[in-house]
Amino acid sequence: MKLALSARVGVIQGISVLLLCGLMGSESVQATLDKPRGEDYASHSHVLPVFGQQLGFNLPSGWKQAHHEERDGVFMAEFVPELEALNQWSTLFCVQGFKGMAESASPKQFLDAMAEAYQATCDGEVVYQKLGDTQVDGHEGFQAILGCTTMPHVHGATQFNPSAFTSNPQGEIGYYTVVSGNKDLYLLHKSMRGDVFSADKPPLQAANSADFISTLGPFSLK
Q1: Which of the chain's ends, N or C, has fewer CB atoms near its CB within 10 Å?
Q2: CA distances (Å), 148 to each of 34, 114, 192, in order?
Q3: CATH of residue 141
């Protein structure tokens, strides 16, 4: 068992950085992240060097990279449809890396802690459906559905919209995969926002999760 109780409390306290993904309202930036694709990555439209490894995935046609940031041992890249922005999106794909975290938490422990911390940003009920173990190029992972029935819709100020504002609450739910790399943990998730929903009838469930994430996979980690 990688994570002792005292360490788990620390992870829960520090995991709030995860919730920045999609909630930041950051201005769009252009960052050069893609690594030249070799033969091993021929099937992936994007390959990101994230700390000590290279993470590959497919980005659907009509999507753009909207944000990239790396600081304090955390890497983040966010992608949205071309006509949308980080302060107002219907669908979001986010890649995050956490340096050195693989040595202290398993993918399942990390997602459990994230689901616990997620409640702080949710005005409704948290939906957390564990989908079980997975693997990416031999690296152990864990996948789940995580969402909020009623999420406050807060938009941060940007250079294009100097005033922060709040719009009607929405439901938010997504597919999350955490993968344990050689030293680091990697989080990939695709989320969607729409009408407020009930916890017993979420728009994303195990039955349709494979279709929801299919355009982005398969993932790779070398």
Answers
A1: N
A2: 32, 13, 11
A3: 3.40.1000.10
